[in-house]
Amino acid sequence: xxxxxxxxxxxxxxxxxxxxxxxxxxxxxxxxRSLRRTISEGEAMIFNSLVLDMHPYVGDEIFAKEHGIFGQxxxxxxxxxxxxxxxxxxxxxxxxxxxxxxxxxxxxVFIGDTIYTIRTNLxxxxxxxxxxxxxxxxxxxxNEGELVLYCEHLQTVKYRHPEDFGDQGR
Length: 170
Fold this sequence. Notes:
By secondary structure, this protein is of the alpha+beta class. The chain has helices spanning 6-11, 41-51, 56-59, 61-66, 77-86; strands at residues 31-33, 37-38, 95-105, 114-126, 131-142, 146-158. 20% of the residues are buried.
């Protein structure tokens, strides 16, 4: 047998921050917590520019201080959602996003706040011939435990053994 090339050897190494679990391994009730990250003013403004969100509460320091009900600029809710879920991104090659439910912006996030996320595996059910449906919740917290965002993410996940699910899929 010929010796493996360096690239072939590299492909045998598990990719960092990637998961390969399948429907059968999804453990209802499991909780995972992300690292924390602080949201800077520069990245908040870049995000606002990218998504064309220049609402005075997120883009106008003078307005926010003089007329805003919080006395300071907010981080856009879309950014909190994106960052909060990004902190828990698992890059699983066997899952596909099906959508989000129950998205709620519970409390404001301000420039300089530090956020982290807790993901909870809520439920799973057979869905299709080759994939089941799982539901997880994401709770994004700021600073030391103040809940600021909640949502539920639905994902289809490939079965390891589709034959075990027979006609349960729709």
